[in-house]
């Protein structure tokens, strides 16, 4: 076991300079080559550990000795502004049990596989109608605005009970909240506006309930309007931002590899293809923060109580020991026939993504339907002209001009 070194070696978050926009920043992959646990430094000057190995990331996310409670003073944040924003209003994914479990259990049933499978016909209808609207306006079109963003927004609005006509408001506020470069006053204002909106919606639903998640939460007498709004904010942002960006980035990647995109024509191949896309893209490129509350030996390194850890999902999902095979393409290349089921794109342990069954269903239906209905789909601009979002917790592309 090695002891804690005195000189941080890597500044987080690492910047991306060239290279494939779908790959982890080179600083992370270089760190992974030297070992699964690397000393690093955050913008505020505090030290932490960057964890890049698959097994080590799983340990961090599943071991009770690593806390997810963002209110702890030593908890690591990529920027001081993120600390102020998150610590002021932590959702249940930023809490430990029993608080985390109490709040999470209240919405778990809405995202169970059985419940999501029953939603597939409605999701299919939303996907088909979105393609109809986009194609009805003529080619070329922006796939983000016309398809990738409307589909998950409509679905999560349906589940939560949020009026879809308010989409421009909550989408724009969400963009600010997930930006790691937004200044704290701007991000706090955006978060406050969205919390106030959802709190007001919950108050209305206490008097006029519907068949939706917010109505059911509002009917409980053990939840404050603020707790309902905080849970609603998490589900609303995660419910549309992640899947919208995954849909757009997956489309770019599949257009790069038309021979692999053809695999989506086989319904039996679609679930596995989506798992490989999730592994390859791992759109949470900034990693998941945790705080050691006890001394832990991790990958041969001693992580002491009170030290922060950033679990890097993107490098874990490209660990050759797990996803490499003699008959497969290298882990940094797309291979829709790869067995990617053990990926960590949704996290791991008790805090893993609550909505992953819904995200899988949406991606399976959206991508298979898109490439089936638009067999001539192609980029309408050179790929080099696409503008990505390097400043977001969830990576994505600003717009995706396509033709068919």
Concise account of the structure shown:
The protein is of the alpha+beta class.
Secondary-structure map:
Layout: E1 11-12, H1 26-34, E2 37-42, E3 47-51, H2 54-62, E4 66-67, H3 80-88, H4 99-108, H5 113-136, E5 141-142, H6 143-148, H7 150-160, H8 167-177, H9 184-207, H10 213-218, H11 225-256, H12 258-261, H13 270-281, E6 288-292, E7 296-298, E8 301-303, E9 308-311, H14 313-316, H15 320-323, H16 356-373, E10 378-379, E11 401-403
Helix pairs in contact: 3-9, 5-7, 5-16, 7-11, 8-9, 8-11, 9-11, 11-16, 13-16
Pick out its properties:
404 residues, alpha+beta, Cytochrome p450, six-stranded mixed beta sheet, three-stranded antiparallel beta sheet, 11 strands, 48% helix, 9% strand, globular, disordered N terminus
Task: Tell me what you see in this structure.
There is one protein chain. The chain has 404 residues and is an alpha+beta fold. It has a single domain, classed as Cytochrome P450 (Cytochrome p450, Orthogonal Bundle), CATH 1.10.630. It is built from 16 helices and eleven strands. The termini are far apart.
Q: What's the name of the CATH homologous superfamily?
A: Cytochrome P450
Q: What is the CA–CA distance across the termini?
A: 57 Å
Sequence stretches where pLDDT stays below 50 over 5 or more residues: 2-8
Sheet bearing the most strands, described?
A: 6 strands, mixed
Label the structural class. alpha+beta
Quickly give the CATH architecture: Orthogonal Bundle
Work out the number of β strands. 11
Arrangement of strands in the largest sheet:
1-2-3-9-6-4
CATH topology category name: Cytochrome p450
- Shape summary: globular
Measured as a percent range, the helix fraction is 40-55%
Into how many domains do the coordinates divide?
1
What string, H for helix and E for strand, traces the elements in order? Answer: EHEEHEHHHEHHHHHHHHEEEEHHHEE
Mean pLDDT over the residues: 94
How large is the count of helical segments? 16
